[in-house]
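Tutorial, part two.
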Amino acid sequence: MKNLAPIVLLLAGMCAGCATHNKALPNAPAVSVPPAVIVTPDNSISGKVIMYESAGRFVVVNFPAGQMPSMGQILFLYRAGLKTAEVKITGPQGYGNIVADLLTGDVKIGDDVRDK
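Running the prediction step on this input gives:
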């Protein structure tokens, strides 16, 4: 029994030490959680001018599969990142191409066409 006394005292001291260290510090800064990241798909329409008819003031625009604009939609033409013209989709359409009337600006083959 005398041999167990030091072990019991050691265990009691360890338990007492653990109980005093589990308390939160009064001046501890609050932990902030970063906001959740929200990922949204890009549903914008984009294409390229493949033909321009200056006499009729219309363009033929090619769009990737599944990205055809609606009739009457206004789109913008960009060259080197700068807006150069506005067009209105009038049709007809076929094989990923659609016709648009030139409303304002200057057009060249290869201009980017976007809805924003």
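The chain has a mean pLDDT of 84. In part three we will examine how such features are distributed along the chain.
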